């Protein structure tokens, strides 16, 4: 997710850009760790200590919280609130700051955690005292079991959704072959949510290594138990590994069938127009220019004229990879984007509108079952 593919790039040369997949873009650690504890520590995900704390309201009661003089009148001589005023221009009168009181909110609880600097960070409101937030340190034993059984390696890990969740991944050792010239890597992604209403889950994601793009084939996921239960985690690890193997086989089947089917430039352009509508002649010039740049780059990728697409050009699979690359890496962007821009786009690819666009592309290009 970085610079655009240069239009002048020719097959057989080294491309000038090296994008990262969406999970790696969101990660605070992407290196291979020896164990899950090391991965979580590097990614700053361990020891969050998620907990419920009672909530309160800040209310303006109209009078000083100590001497009870109304706004605009002077504090009593003995009032500590008035004496604590540090503003050199203060006139000794009651102001808005002096009439704000903390009022208990019975039955309301807030979810908090300890951040990396040791301070309490508020994450969101929780309505019931009975809710227990399970930290990723606990659920990560699922990944430990998968690594042990499948000889997998740890992958990207980091926070999600303003620290209300976190993710950690493992990479299965066997790559998915697509024809004779392309490979996909299978990842098992643990998403640990701290807020009720958004369940924790295991996702199974294939990543194309040549272009570092998330593949949106045959969405599959496993919802995790909300309880802190060690036996449940062992069962979930076994189910996750079985599902990952099945999902990898399914992805390989679908991708290979697409790789074997030719696609003309005209057919590819028709698909692209269903993903990105052509702007009207009256549209802003920058919008029209973005569209034209993207269309030109899509054709270059589809024809296999850059290294990342050599060997798959002119096929349904090649067309899909061109579209997925354009969606995930914003290949038509004219300038480098900020880290925040890239992370926003990565979340959108994985969980939002851009992800829906990618799944639409799969539906349009997938080879119908016989």
Automatic annotation (TrEMBL):
Compositionally biased intervals (Basic and acidic residues): 84-94
A Pfam short name: DUF932
Annotated region described as Disordered, given as residue ranges: 1-20, 74-94
Domain of life of the organism encoding this protein: Bacteria
Protein name (Swiss-Prot/TrEMBL): Uncharacterized protein DUF932
Source organism: Kutzneria buriramensis
